[in-house]
Amino acid sequence: MRNHREELLHFIWQFQYYDTSALYTIQGEKLQIIKPGIMNNDAGPDFFNSRIKINGQEWAGNIELHWKSSEWELHNHQQDAAYNNVILHVVYEHDQDVFKKNGDLLPALELKNRINSKMLNRYNAMMKAKSWIPCEKQLKEILIHEEGIGIFLQKLLIERFEEKTKNIRELLQQNGWNWEEAFYRFMARGFGFKVNAEPFYQLSAITPLQVIARHKNNLLQLEALMLGQAGYLDKSYQDEYIHRLQREYLFLKNKYNLVSLPVHVWKFGRMRPANFPTLRLVQFAALIHHSSSLFSRMIEIKREEEALQWLLPEVSEYWKYRFVPDGDKTAKGNRMGISSARLLILNVVAPFMFLYGKERGIETMTETAIELLNHIPAETNSTIKNFENLGLKINSAADSQALLVLKNRYCDQKRCLYCIFGKRILTPALHE
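Above: the chain sequence. Below: its structure as C-alpha cells.
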C-alpha cells in the first residue's frame, strides 16, 4: 500500500522544499546538506549517493526517510545490514532515537517545523478530496500560469504507448519475435473493434498467416478463408457468389486441415450494419489483398494520409452493396469509415510502430507513431469531456490518450506529487 505521507516527505527532501537554514541534528550537531542524493525506487534506503557534513566532518552514503523515527524499528531496519551505510535519518517527527545493526546511533534531522504549513494543508486536502480529480477546484487557475504542459503530456503519451504495447510484447516473446504474425493477429483484433475483438483474435489464431500469405493475391479465396473460418459458410444460401465462397472454403479447409469458429461467438446486437462482423471480415480480406504484406506496409507509413489510404481499400463488388451473405442490396459502397480507420491507427498501427522503433533503435519510427496521433482528432468520452470542462485544451488523439493515463494512473491513484499540476499547486506555497 502506498504511503502518501512518506511520498510527500520524499518529494520535499528530493527538491529541498524545507527551511534549510541553521540545520542541526536532533543530537545537537551542526548539519550541512551537500547533496540530498538520488531517489531509490527499489528495495533499500530511500536516497543513495548522498553527501552531508556533521560538525564539519563529511560523510557519504545513504539517507532514509520516515514520517516518524520509530518507523525505523517498525520496518526492522535495525536488523538489516543494508542500512548500516545510512548516514542520516530524515523524519517529519522525531519520537525516539534509533540504532543501526552495527550498534551506531543514527543522526536524525526533524523537518516538522521546517515545512511550509500551506504545502501540508494543500497536500492533505488533495489526498482527502472526493471530487472527480484531487485538484478539480484548483486546476483552472493552475492552467493559466503553467508552462511545460505539452512536455508533460508527451511523457504521459509515452506511458500510454508502453501500456498498450505490453500485450504485443508478450505475443512477440511467445512467437519468437515474429513481427509479421504478431501484427496480423493484432490487426485482426483491431478489425473487431470493441464488440468483436476477441472473436477476430481467435480467428487469426486458428488461421495461420502462412496460409493467408499463400492466397493473398486471390481476393475470393481470402474472403472464403475469413468468412469460412468465422463459421459463416456452414449453412445454405441463395446467392451464387456465396456458393463460390463455400466451394473455395471447402477446398482450402481440407487442404490445410482448418477448423472454424462457432458462428455464435460473433455479436450483432445494437450494431449499425456498417459495423457488422461479416462486413469487417471482408474488409480485412481486402486489406490483406491490397498489401504486399501487412507489417512491411505498415512500417513504410510516414503520414496519416498514407495510413488512411492503406486502411480503406475497396471491397469486392458483391460486398459493396451488402452487409451479410444473401443480404438485400444497398446503394452504399461498403468501405470502412474514416473514424474506424483512425481507431485502427490509434490502437494497432501507432503502438506497433512505437514498439518496433524502440526495439530496433529506430527513433524516426517512434516519432512517426507519435506524429500520427498528433494528426488524429481526440476521442470523445466522459474523461476527455471532463478535462475540457476544467479548461484543458485537447487538440488531438495524442492529448486525449495522454489524459487517459493522467486520470487512471495519476488522479485516480492520487499520485499528485508526480503530476505537473499537483506540483504547481503545492510549490507556490513555498513563496507565500
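Strands lie at 31-35, 38-39, 47-54, 57-68, 86-93, 108-110.
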